[in-house]
Write a structure and sequence with these properties.
There is one protein chain. This protein is of the alpha+beta class. It has one domain: RelE-like (YaeB-like fold), CATH 3.30.2310. Helix content is 36%, strand content 30%. Strands 1-5-4-3-2 form a five-stranded mixed beta sheet. Helix 1 runs antiparallel to helix 2. It is globular, with a radius of gyration of 13 Å. The N and C termini lie far apart (32 Å).
Length: 96
């Protein structure tokens, strides 16, 4: 079963800011970052329970080639995944 995915505006901004940062580091790197985010979200949508619970109901999926985690909540009743934030693993989390 594939779940529908909903992005909070903060998560969307996190992705845009990271893509902009990486593109400034090397041409095409921002595009590679965006592709990896898309691939990770596809993996989440296919099997959202495969990723560990980090804080209460929050789950996190790690990007494979960038130091980022995608934090999300799973709503089994509505088959919905809510993407909350996309953080660099070196950032201090606001809820920690």
């Amino acid at each position: 079963m594939t779940y529908s995915v909903v992005f909070l505006s903060d998560a969307y901004l996190d992705i845009l800011n990271a893509k902009e940062y990486y593109e400034g580091q090397a041409k095409g790197l921002g595009i590679r970052f965006g592709s990896e985010v898309d691939a990770t979200i596809s993996r989440i949508a296919i099997n959202p329970q495969a990723f560990s619970t980090r804080y209460r109901e929050l789950r996190a999926a790690k990007l494979r080639h960038f130091p980022y985690l995608i934090y999300y909540k799973l709503d089994l009743a509505n088959t919905t995944i809510k993407i909350l934030r996309v953080f660099n693993t070196y950032q201090k989390l606001p809820w920690s």
